[in-house]
Amino acid sequence: MRVANLAGRAVVLSGGGSVDLNRASGGRFGPGPQEVYERWDELRDWWSGVRADPEPYRESDLREPVPRPRQVFAIGVNYAEHAAEAQVETAERPPWPPTFTKFPSSLTGPHATVALPEGLVDWEVELVAVIGRTAHRVPAAKAWDHVAGLTIGQDLSERITQLSGPAPQQYALGKSYPGFGPLGPAVVTLDELPDPGDLAIGCDLNGEPVQDARTSEMIFSVPELVERLSAVATLHPGDLVFTGTPGGIGATRTPPRFLAPGDELVSRVEGLGTLRTTFERA
């Protein structure tokens, strides 16, 4: 199942078209995309018996599939290659993953144009886990049962704001400008993927590959992240976990490279589709 937000309505993308969940269910499910995660198990059971004719849609009408999460968790230096390029010393399996947040107001859809603020704006393609069941103190062995599905995210980051001090650094602010959280195109359930723990991930800038890795290279896997986050916080249906970026960001290149007006960033994760983000001057 691939759940999406089509012009503000919850749909399932199927057979090259879309099925409006509110209309197909006779009003059983509301039209809002966020509400489906509160009734995720019920939705999956109902969808398994649905026979509906998909309707054509325009990809440009797709918006962020999780538009109003209560919490957005983000994980830092979760790939060894990224830790090395950022000159962050980390053990192969440190006790806790570096964790911060992106404010939900930064989220945007899979075909967005983002206004660049002053500063140095960088890219970070990420696998994003969407929570489907309330999770508190959930062991890794049961963590996938609490994940509704996976989607693609970009953790866009303005580095001057992010690294300003004196202490602590302003990670949340530097990563939460409007449009700094492209998300989508859909939330894909795990049964659609041959191995949800090992997916190709990467992004291209103006057609040039700049990041290329596999999610199996994460230091903390999705189940381990759910275990550690839920050991402290209660995770709610519809919450997002940005799971970290692989190597290849702009700030660590020689010379450094940052996003500019007119750039196009295409982010991809195997089995999940692509995000296409363009940039303009604010």
Automatic annotation (TrEMBL):
Q: Which InterPro entries match?
A: FAH, Fumarylacetoacetase-like_C, Fumarylacetoacetase_C_sf
Would you say which domain of life the source belongs to? Answer: Bacteria
Whether Metal-binding counts among this entry's keywords is: yes
Q: Report a single Gene Ontology molecular function.
A: hydrolase activity
Q: Where is the Fumarylacetoacetase-like C-terminal domain?
A: 72-279
Q: Which Gene3D superfamilies match?
A: Fumarylacetoacetase-like, C-terminal domain
The entry assigns this protein to a family as follows: Belongs to the FAH family.
Taxonomic source organism: Actinomadura fibrosa
User: What SUPFAM superfamilies does the record point to?
Assistant: FAH (SSF56529)
Key words, A-Z: Hydrolase, Metal-binding
- The identity of this protein, by name, is Fumarylacetoacetate hydrolase family protein
